[in-house]
Amino acid sequence: MSRTRVRDEDLFCARCRRPVRIGAAHWPEGYICASCRDHALETYGRCVGCGIDRLTPGIAPDGGQWCTNCAGGLGDFFCERCGREAARYQRGVCGNCVLAERLEDLLDDGTGRIRPELVPFYDEVRSVPRPKGMLTWVGKPHVQQILQALAQGQVPLSHDGLGTLSPWRSVAYVRDLLMH
Ligand SMILES: [Zn+2]
Ligand SMILES: [Zn+2]
Ligand SMILES: [Zn+2]
Hints:
With 180 residues, this protein is an alpha+beta fold. Helices cover 37% and strands 12% of the residues.
């Protein structure tokens, strides 16, 4: 039996020390697990290196936040569509832009446009600061059914209309967002 020699640093996340999966991102400090990477790419603030307020996924030697320029080697995270600096969920496109695109499809009232009464809901949902959870949510088939039923006017946009949809937990969430 042969064993492949693997260095310790190849097996653990440089930040949280948990084991990383094959294909994990590699930053100058070492491999980064998916959850540390997600967290880093949702961290904004003033960079301790250059003083600019922007995405700060890097960690400076003193523990402060570093932007991609000061950290170096992390990659470029500007969205090609909206210009925002954020984690990207499609090639070159940030999560909020991907989310907007999905919602435009789901909330289409049949005329190629979002049902006008649902535009505030669309604006609220597509601009959440951390789109990852929302992307997972709109990817669920039962959520898509609820949104399409509302968009296409299969049920009225009222408490009674919503009451005819299921599952109730998702419907309640949609209702809370609609009431914003
Ligand atoms: Zn980690
Ligand atoms: Zn900087
Ligand atoms: Zn974008």
